[in-house]
Predict the structure of SDR family oxidoreductase.
Amino acid sequence: MSLQNKNVVITGGSQGIGLATAKQFIQQGANVWITGRNADNLQKAADEIGSAKLKTVVSDTSKFEGIAALEKAVAESGQKIDVLFLNAGVATFAPIEHVTEADFDLQFNTNVKGHFFTLQKLTPHLAEGASITFTSSGVATGSAIATAVYSATKAALNKIADVALNELAPRKIRVNIVSPGPIATPGLDSVAPPEAQAYLASTTALQRVGTADEIAGAVVFLASDAAGYINGADIAIDGGFIQYHLK
Ligand SMILES: NC(=O)c1ccc[n+]([C@@H]2O[C@H](COP(=O)([O-])OP(=O)(O)OC[C@H]3O[C@@H](n4cnc5c(N)ncnc54)[C@H](OP(=O)(O)O)[C@@H]3O)[C@@H](O)[C@H]2O)c1
């Protein structure tokens, strides 16, 4: 797929990985919708990108009304979606004993329910041969302390992606997952102070955290013709975890 004039929807696109991905798709000539809960943050992102090819939709993916607002914007455009990047996500970390119901609901409503129903509502608007990519995480297959809820949301998301692949195959729609390791974003800054980020960097073979652009590049590639036979992949973009590279 050449990305010129393709229609791309990115949930959680006002900062971090979603914003970096929006920029790269715009550079490729695509039309991009980005979503987020906060209108000011979306406006900042739009100002930064500065392209008429970018549109913003205030849409809280954890709520049905938010998903409906996104669906309405897409339906009113009269366009089919060529690329759907289901990326919005939140994380809070605490040992199981200290997790609150609010922590649990926020993460499951955003990271699982939100993606599931966004996928459901936008499926009728997907073009034949569209590319869907989910943002999961390396933690989906890990079991580090204090990550039970967040990890469980990402593991659930991976299963939804697996099933979607089979259900959407008759329409030649490809479904893939990107699983970032630690990536420098406002989201990471909000949960990991500098010393925690230094520790995370030390757990990677490359001894650094990644950049949002390094995830964006993979998502753009997955949407392109060059990835036309890549379907059902879960691409780890994590610098290589050190435990796989014994010193
Ligand atoms: N950074 C990492 O180290 C890392 C590692 C593994 C996986 N991930 C995953 O990568 C994705 C992006 O993370 P990031 O680090 O780029 O996060 P980020 O910097 O916090 O950005 C998150 C984006 O999602 C939006 N968002 C949050 N909740 C939303 C909701 N309910 N509805 C719509 N938009 C929402 C935010 O905008 P508003 O706040 O305005 O809504 C923002 O645009 C997430 O799924 C995260 O779990 C990140």
About this structure: The chain has one domain: 7-237. The mean pLDDT is 96. The longest helix spans residues 101-122.
